[in-house]
Amino acid sequence: MEGRFNWAGVIEFLPELGTGLYYTLLISIVGLIIGFILGAIFGLGRISKNKIFYSITSVYIEIIRGTPVLVQAIWIFFALPLITGFNMASVTAGIVVIAINSGAYIAEIVRGAVQSIEKGQVEAGRSLGLTHNQTMRYIVWPQAFKRMIPPLGNQFIISIKDTSLLSVILVPELMFQGRLIASNHFNAVEIYTTVAVFYLFITLTLSYVLRIIERRLDVQ
Amino acid sequence: MIKVQDLHKKFGDNEVLKGINCEIQAQEVVCVIGPSGSGKSTFLRCLNMLESITSGDVTVDGHNLKDPKTNINMVRTEVGMVFQQFNLFPHKTVIENIMLAPEKVRKISRDEARERGLKLLDKVGLSEKADQYPSSLSGGQQQRVAIARALAMEPKLMLFDEPTSALDPELVGEVLEVMKQLALEGMTMVVVTHEMGFAREVADRVLFMDEGIIMEEGKPEQIFSKPTSERTKEFLNKVL
Asked: What average pLDDT does the segment A110-114 reach?
């Protein structure tokens, strides 16, 4: 069995895998930043008394939660241009997919965290003469944010792993590069193992950073 | 200071307040007593619109709360409130709890807010706790901070919603002491309480509420010594 796998040979493909890693990180970071903004807006929509805002939010969340990411990616990249007549670069489409997909889940995280803040906190703020917005900003949001961090970390990790599905819409990310290399050089074991290690490296680093943030915020 | 006319409050089909009428003068200390479920807390919470008013009129410091032109946030700056569960902001230190509203609502400077906060902490006997978080304080201390926080807005009127009900018995005294001091300084106060001793000693007037109306009202000595209503007698027999 000796010499059956050529692990040292992986080094040769590191530039390609590096490019893949770059796109995976780019799409994850940009996608999740936009996803967080969407999540914050729609999370507040989900608890809004404004019926129109509430309905739009609910429809958005239900559609995204009820369909697979893979379908969303393919629909946005292949179907949407046929409707709008406007072509999107695959990387852009990838960012859009991650953003709107994570946004829906983050919206639910935001809603849950905000609703978990005791009603007495809002009442105390309002009874002091703070406006609704001031109460949200200075009292509810800072406390809710702290409670969001663990589920948010979960969602970030899920979304990072979801980027691997974007290989089907030709985003040159890690999985895409891995498949390209493996099919040309017949080294599936070495390459896919390396790809898996790369993903693990990203997610473990993120878990570690989140644990530090959690501990920092818990000083009291 | 407060004028309440035929105040009704419904939660769905459940009518909790069934026509409250009363007037409270400036510098008066009024204690509201009565069995649980009698609507005392709801009545108090209508006075600063934490509960919306179903019908009737509530006028506080010349502002009709139901008038759409009334800026409720402005009225609330004049009406301090202390809650049963303290409701301190757990993510802020004691002094930050006190400084928040004066800074953001009254728009006074940070230094001025801090100075005012420290003075009030001194008044409630907690100056050394300024930079601690509420979670490290006892219930009695938390409630005294909550009183200081309300006073920092320099309100004309203070509402107390069962301020000692969530406290261990040995911590009740320190909170009542602060409230008594406040009463002696001439603060207008409406206090929903189960502390009959406090009501008897400090109140100018006692309202006995039952089933959503004010059954009986009068000077404490009259309510406690010779109540006229059967319901009042029954209630006092149980609690005294």
From this structure: 95
Instruction: Check A220 against B88: CB less than 8 A apart.
Output: no
Q: What is the pLDDT of residue A2?
A: 54
pLDDT digits (tens, 9 = 90+) for B147-174: 999 999 999 999 999 999 999 999 999 9
Identify all chain A residues contacting B74, using CB atoms and an 8 Å cutoff: 129
- From B222's Cα to the closest Cα of chain A, the distance in A is 33
Residue located via tokens 């670069």: A89
A126: chain B residues, CB-CB within 8 Å: 50, 73, 76
Contact B223, B206 (CB under 8 A): yes
Strands B2-11 and B14-24: antiparallel
pLDDT at A220: 45
In a 3-state reduction of DSSP, which class is residue B230? helix
Structure pTM? 0.85
Residue A1 has pLDDT above 70, yes or no: no
CA A30 – CA A202 distance, rounded (Å): 15
How many CB atoms neighbour CB A217 within 10 A?
Answer: 14
Write the CA distances from B53 to B68, B73, B167, B210, integer angstroms: 12, 16, 30, 19
Task: Give the ipTM of the model, two decimals please.
Answer: 0.93
Q: Which residues of B touch A127 (CB under 8 A)?
A: 48, 50, 76, 79-81, 150
**Do the chains contact at B73 and A220, CB–CB below 8 Å?**
no
